[in-house]
Automatic annotation (TrEMBL):
It holds the Pfam family Glycos_transf_2. The keyword Membrane applies. This is Glycosyltransferase family 2 protein. Residues 13-174 form the Glycosyltransferase 2-like domain. The keyword Glycosyltransferase applies. SUPFAM superfamilies: Nucleotide-diphospho-sugar transferases (SSF53448). Gene3D superfamilies: Spore Coat Polysaccharide Biosynthesis Protein SpsA, Chain A. It comes from Pseudoxanthomonas gei. Keywords: Cell membrane, Glycosyltransferase, Lipopolysaccharide biosynthesis, Membrane, Transferase, Transmembrane, Transmembrane helix.
Length: 246
């Protein structure tokens, strides 16, 4: 039996930022639909970060067959963190799932994150994917281990993998966080700074089947050093008072 879209308000918004991912949008969208349509009312919010290929045209064509799909587009290229924030701002559900647009995250893991949320207490506002079997190049895996070790030492965020694109978080808690470029790499530390708890959940990771990576180890390292110092400063300067109504 083929599931049909529910007319109920969305309980989950799946936000996917993309830049030049023309051949990955259709397979990923169909996987999201297959994973979620039997479970709950949802929407898919794609944010195109000013692609120079025909990603937008393909997304608009897909709207005709996937009624849950919404498409937003940036007028200028603004980066992944800004694209995620654009999607979260536009989202209609109170909880957000994010996926990278390259297809390396598996939408079949979203139900696993939802199950973890159902078992957790209300203080957990972020469920972060943890790529236990990464399918990247050896140099990327080495750079990621190096970066995670330094980040963990400085921020003490108790998170083994902050670079995984699949996450589940409360929309309001996310929008309360300080916004800056590349903030998506520090969501566990930022959520904890705000007084919330976070959990890491093992998830699948896949090879990129089409297109090319938009990052390299060198530019990621230089930007990461500056961002890491900034996030560490934010944590040192944070205060979370306990208040009671008088």
């Amino acid at each position: 039996m083929i599931e049909t879209p529910s007319s109920a308000p969305a309980e989950l918004s799946v936000v996917v930022p993309v830049f030049n991912e023309r051949d990955n949008v259709a397979p990923l969208i169909h996987e999201i639909v297959a994973a979620l349509r039997p479970l709950l009312p949802f929407e898919i919010v794609y944010v195109d970060d000013h692609s120079t290929d025909d990603t937008i045209a393909r997304l608009l064509a897909l709207k005709q067959e996937v009624p849950e799909l919404r498409v937003l587009g940036h007028g200028v290229q603004s980066g992944q963190s800004t694209a995620i924030r654009t999607g979260v701002n536009a989202a209609r559900a109170s909880w957000i799932a994010t996926l990278d647009g390259d297809g390396q995250n598996d939408p079949a893991d979203i139900p696993k994150l939802l199950q973890a949320r159902a078992k957790a207490d209300g203080q957990v506002k972020l469920f972060a994917g943890w790529r236990v079997n990464r399918q990247d190049t050896a140099s990327k895996r080495w750079a990621s281990r190096w970066a995670n070790a330094i980040r963990s030492r400085m921020l003490r965020d108790d998170t083994p993998d902050t670079g995984c694109g699949i996450k589940l978080f409360e929309r309001g808690a996310f929008l309360d966080l300080p916004y800056f470029d590349h903030m998506h790499r520090y969501l566990p530390a930022l959520m904890q700074r705000a007084g919330w708890r976070t959990l890491s959940i093992p998830v699948n990771h896949r090879n990129r089947s089409s297109g090319v990576s938009k990052y390299n180890n060198l530019n990621r390292a230089w930007v990461g050093i500056s961002d890491l110092r900034g996030v560490a400063w934010l944590i040192r300067r944070s205060r979370i008072p306990r208040a009671r109504e008088l």
